[in-house]
Amino acid sequence: MSRHSSIIGISIAGCVVAGSLVWGDDNPRGERRAPAPKVSTEQLRGIFFDDLDEAIRGQRPSLSSLRKASEAKANEPTKTQQPDQSSADSWAGLISPVSLEDEIKRVRLHFDSIITTPGAFNSGGYQDARLDLSVLAMLFAVIQQHSGDVRWKDEAGAARDLLARTAFNCKAGSTQVYNEAKLRKADLQDLVSGTGLASREAEPENVWSEIADRSPLMEYAERLVDSLEGNSRDAASIESNIDAVKRDAELIAMLGEVLTKEGMDEADDDDYVKLSRNMTADSKKVVAAIERADFEGARAGVSQIRGRCDACHEQYR
């Protein structure tokens, strides 16, 4: 046998061995296996359906019905999360953009006048700063949700958060807090001048418990009512100070609503909420009387506001 024939023979033998490994007996080691279980039809009854129609309740869907359902789903308008308009509409019904803007300018000028030196700030100026910053934070919170065209709305949330944080820190005077108040003074200057805030990060929603304490807002309410009374001694006084009277009345109406917001002190007290909302309602009546030139009616409304304010101060502080 030639060497070539030997090589061919060895190759054939190798293929035979490999083939036996691949295609050979399924149980080459002679392992013992359990026989396949025998299950009767009765044992399977109740587990599997005899017919597909039994598994479907109602009419069996057809291809055309499935296609129609798919097309109807595709044509449904996409649901997107829309901002809650209730708060925006309520603010617009209480205070005008002009009154908001004018009050921010007025309070900001007063705030500038008290941020002078660390000594003056630590000697009591921090209390005035806390009041001004609390009021400003509240005003910017309202602007953020106001449906009208109000200046600074794009930066209202950031201004609200910056001013509220410093207002809380102004519960005591120190050089550190004074320096922080100076930064807010610069921020307000940049905002009012149109330069804008350096930082515009802000919480998306108003969290009233983090915006302002009730104590400075109650003090603010007292000052507003004093100003309102001073300009409403008689019909002639109201006519001479009509813009100021209207602005103060709108601010009181807005403030009455703020004091009832979730997170504010006593906002879950029914009597307190009733007093606040009555003050808001009386303030709206004053504005309505001014708009129809009923100055006597406006003066009577101012007296009612004073009564609401006094009743609230007697029970809550």
TrEMBL record:
One of its GO terms (biological process) is electron transport chain. Residues 77-89 have a biased composition (Polar residues). It comes from the Bacteria. InterPro entries: Cyt_c/b562, Cyt_c_II. SUPFAM superfamilies: Cytochromes (SSF47175). Residues 63-90 are annotated as: Disordered. GO terms for molecular function: electron transfer activity; heme binding; iron ion binding. This is Cytochrome C. It comes from Rubripirellula reticaptiva. The lineage of its organism: Bacteria, Pseudomonadati, Planctomycetota, Planctomycetia, Pirellulales.
